Amino acid sequence: MKAELLELLPALRRYAWSMTHSVHDADDLLQGTVERLLRKGVPDGVELARWAFTVCRNLWIDEYRSRKTWQTTELDPDLTEAGQVDGEKAVQTQMQLKQVMTAMRKLPEEQQMVLNMVSVQGLSYQEVANSLDIPVGTVMSRLARARGKLTEILNT
User: Fold this and answer.
1) Which CATH fold would you assign to the domain 1-72?
2) What letter does residue 27 receive in the DSSP assignment?
3) By CB neighbour count within 10 A (0-12 exposed, 13-18 middle, 19+ buried), where does 50 fall?
4) CA–CA distance, 22 with 27 (Å, rounded to integer)
5) Is the dihedral of CA 20, 25, 29, 30 positive or negative?
6) Domain 85-156 has CATH 1.10.287.180
7) I need a labelling partner for 119 at 20 to 30 A (CA). Which of 17, 63, 126, 154 fits?
8) 94-108 pLDDT, tens per residue?
9) For the chain, what is the mean pLDDT?
């Protein structure tokens, strides 16, 4: 399990960052997730990755509810998969990313979660449905509403 968990860490960290919008909070959330997984293990018959994302999401929801506010976004190049590019294109890309992330924070929590899981982590609709324990149709509906609202916000 430890080797599998080590392979999963970068994806879990990106996922944590996509929810928290803070490198510090993402690292804390990742640490809490790993501690919980190592302490309590994974239920029989459940895939480690699915369980890890579920634990991470649930820990964040608990933390988010206790804070009742979103943190300001920090852009960390270590969390983006693209390499460093100098010049105007890098600045434009960073500005666009900030705009998208600001717009995403305006979405309802359930839409943010689905959008993050599909867009950031690349999970299938079925995997998202399983992780959130909701029907696939609900995933599709939330994703469609999130994308529509995001487009609306970004075009204004």
Assistant:
1) Rna Polymerase Sigma Factor; Chain: A (1.10.1740)
2) H
3) middle
4) 9
5) positive
6) no
7) 63
8) 787 788 888 888 888
9) 82
Please write the tens of the pLDDT for every residue from 17-60: 888 888 898 999 999 999 999 999 999 998 998 899 999 988 98
List the structure tokens of 73. Answer: 């976004």
Matching residue, tokens 């997984």: 37
CA-closest candidate to residue 6, choices 48, 55, 59? 48
Residue linked to tokens 């960052």: 17
d(Cα 25, Cα 16) in Å, to the nearest integer? 8
- Domain range list for the chain: 1-72, 85-156
Fill in the DSSP letter of residue 54: H
What integer pLDDT is reported at residue 74 of this predicted model?
Answer: 47
Residue 78 DSSP class: G
Q: How far apart are CA 3 and CA 5, in angstroms?
A: 5
Count of positions (residues) in the chain: 156
DSSP run (H or E) holding 12: helix 2-20
State which amino acid sits at residue 48. Answer: L
Per-residue pLDDT band for 12 (boundaries 50, 70, 90) equals very high
